[in-house]
Specification:
The structure is a single chain. The chain is of the alpha/beta class. It is built from 15 helices and eight strands. Strands 1, 2, 3, 4, 5, 6, 7 and 8 form an eight-stranded mixed β-sheet that branches. Strand 2 and strand 3 form a beta hairpin. The longest helix is centred in the first third of the chain and has 23 residues.
């Protein structure tokens, strides 16, 4: 009896110590139990082509200037489709709980038709130099800007890649450009500025979409590293938001010798140790966090997540179901054209910001960027 009791205490002590290590030092425990394989076996470092044919495209490092300039016939086509939109009957007293309500869509479409000046907004979008370059068979669109140096003293300039997400576009980074490119004193440097590179994710805006499956964040990271290298940068900073966060994380893990610094605005729970800590915090938060920070617990946000993230299931399993819509020109599919992207953006922004809204002009900017040359809304593929 005494021996059994001693063994029980011993096993309990070992188990408690293991759980304690798992909570406090999860990386060390998992590295000991499951050593990490070589990065080359995990990440897609090898070149590939994203064309329908598997031919490796000829190397072409040309960087071509690009300007946004919708053909007048496309603007007229959009106007006609908006004028012929057929609205369903709205459901009363649900506000935004069923999605973006029909009544609000009518107001936006009216603004779009009678007040929104696309040509004026084209000038806004074209205020910074834009380019196209072919990488792995795809034309990648990007903004590249560094403020000319006119200061009396030399400016230390560092390259930075700003990576957008969904349903955004390269335009969502525009407000950062003057902040980053204006020289200012930072640390030991009297004058520091950044050379800004804003690539559009493949399948977004004016970047070509992949013709084959497999275009995931790590493959995009490899493409972006090639872009930075083509621009002459072997070391650079990276900022990412939304899907740009995941791409930036892949860049940093795949090319740590190149990434000088990383800034993220979204931290997804994507690793087993973090998930374990989150589960423990849900039942015994004091073990892993300050109890006053209970607002961080995922259990307190579960209902909101169930309400707001239904789109991820459709987009990760049947991307073409929604993705084909934006390119359909027939008025029979009135809800599957430009207004689909617009309605999606209008719904997402208030849902993710606690009711804040960037304004119709911003959303119509995003819609205009995604609309003119899409075979499908390829951004949905990244949820697969």
């Amino acid at each position: 009896m005494g021996l059994l009791l001693s063994l029980t205490f011993l096993l309990f002590g070992i188990g408690s110590a293991f759980i304690g290590l798992l909570i406090t030092q999860p990386d060390a425990v998992f590295n000991f139990l499951i050593p990490l394989p070589p990065k080359a076996d995990v990440f897609p470092y090898n070149d590939r082509t994203w064309r329908a044919t598997n031919e490796i495209p000829a190397k072409n490092s040309e960087i071509r200037p690009f300007r946004i300039d919708w053909p007048e016939k496309d603007l007229l086509d959009l106007k006609q489709r908006l004028e012929n939109t057929r609205y369903g009957s709205p459901i009363s007293d649900v506000k935004f709980t069923y999605g973006f309500p029909t009544g609000q869509v009518k107001k936006v479409v009216d603004y779009w038709l009678h007040k929104y000046d696309w040509r004026a907004q084209e000038a806004v979008l074209n205020q910074y130099p834009q380019y196209l370059t072919a990488i792995e068979g795809l034309d990648i669109h990007f903004v590249h800007y560094a403020k000319p140096q006119v200061a009396a003293k030399p400016v230390n300039t560092f390259p930075i890649a700003l990576l957008h997400g969904w349903p955004g576009s390269f335009f969502e980074m525009y407000k950062l450009v003057p902040l980053l490119t204006t020289p200012r004193a930072i640390g030991e440097f009297d004058a520091v500025a950044f050379e800004v590179v804003i690539p559009a994710i493949p399948g977004f805006g004016f970047s070509d979409a992949a013709h084959t499956t497999g275009m995931d964040p790590c493959n995009i990271a490899r493409i972006y590293d090639k872009l930075m290298e083509r621009l002459g940068h072997t070391k650079y900073y990276v900022y990412g938001g939304d899907w740009g966060t995941t791409i930036a994380r892949c860049l940093t893990v795949m090319y740590p010798e190149k990434v000088l610094g990383l800034d993220l605005t979204m931290y997804p729970v994507s690793v087993v140790p973090t998930m374990i800590r989150t589960a423990v915090a849900s039942v015994a938060p004091s073990l892993v966090m300050d109890p006053t920070e209970s607002y961080k617990l995922i259990s307190n946000h579960l209902y909101t997540m169930l309400q707001e993230f239904g789109f991820t299931l459709l987009q990760s399993t049947k991307p073409d179901t929604i993705g084909i819509g934006p390119s359909i020109r027939s008025l029979t599919f009135h809800e599957l054209n430009g207004s689909t992207i617009c309605r999606c953006c209008l719904e997402r922004y208030p849902g993710w910001t606690g009711g804040l809204h960037p304004g119709e002009v911003y959303v119509l900017h995003a819609t205009g960027i995604h609309q003119p040359n899409r075979r499908r809304l390829d951004g949905t593929l990244h949820y697969g």
